[in-house]
Write a structure and sequence with these properties.
By secondary structure, the chain is mainly alpha-helical. The chain is built from ten helices and no strands. Helix 4 (45-76) packs antiparallel against helix 7, helix 6 (118-130) runs antiparallel to helix 10 (201-225) and helix 7 runs antiparallel to helix 8 (170-177). Bound molecules: 5-(aminomethyl)-2-methylpyrimidin-4-amine. It is an enzyme of class 3 (hydrolase).
Length: 229
């Protein structure tokens, strides 16, 4: 069986190679106008509230997806520390769901009567398909890395010096833009790259397609938050 190999001739890892190769779509996901508007202090608060209500629904569906990644790590990973990284991520979702509830009450967003919008439903359906036992650990962990990294890069942008993020949105940006979350994303990236290095080329190809799908679902999610469907 052919091996996928790790990265390009310059010694870049597979995920770093993809990020460069697919730079235009990667930037559409990580520098979306919704995020740039937060950073510039011009975000429409109705859009922010829409994002908040929809993201709570998404995170609830992210829990079983991540549980499926954990299960695959336990069964398919040759590295015991993978399980600890994924378990840490899963455990932090409990705190994240509580954060959504307190943030929603602050903004008068009614989480339990918010219906999922089309882009969210489609993204959640995609997560459900990735949770299938037929999807390999390599593909699932690549999706996990991409999903977390889009939020990390996006919200970190709103915390950079020179940004004019409104004070009442700083807490939201810190949740995903903080340095600790950045290190957590790097740990997931190292897992994905290690797996991709040893993977057969057809699995590497599938993982790259899933990476691109995640970027496109993320763009649709931001568009939905801006009021476009
Ligand atoms: C849509 C979306 N993508 C990613 C994340 C980060 N877990 C999130 N909360 N929501």
């Amino acid at each position: 069986m052919e091996r996928g190999g790790n990265g390009d001739a310059n010694g870049k890892s597979t995920t770093a190679t993809w990020t460069n190769l697919h730079r235009p779509i990667y930037e559409r996901a990580t520098r979306h106008p919704f995020i740039l508007a937060i950073r510039e202090g011009t975000v429409d608060i109705a859009a922010f509230k829409r994002w908040l209500g929809q993201d709570y629904i998404f995170v609830r569906d992210f829990v079983p997806f991540l549980a499926s990644v954990l299960l695959k790590a336990c069964k398919q990973s040759d590295e015991p520390s993978d399980m600890e990284v994924i378990l840490g991520g899963l455990a932090s979702l409990s705190d994240e769901l509580s954060w959504f509830k307190s943030e929603a009450s602050k903004w008068d967003v009614h989480l339990y009567t918010t219906a999922p919008q089309k882009a969210n439903l489609e993204y959640c359906r995609f997560l459900q398909s990735l949770a299938s036992p037929e999807v390999s650990y390599i593909v699932a962990v690549t999706a996990f890395w991409a999903i977390e990294t889009v939020y990390q890069e996006s919200f970190a942008l709103c915390l950079e010096s020179g940004s004019e993020t409104p004070a009442e949105l700083i807490d939201t940006c810190r949740r995903w833009g903080n340095a600790g979350f950045g290190q957590y994303c790097q740990s997931i990236q190292r897992i994905a790259d290690r797996c991709l290095e040893k993977a057969p080329s057809d699995e590497v190809k599938k993982a790259e397609e899933v990476f691109l799908s995640v970027l496109s679902y993320e763009i649709n999610f931001w568009n939905m938050s801006c009021g476009e469907s």
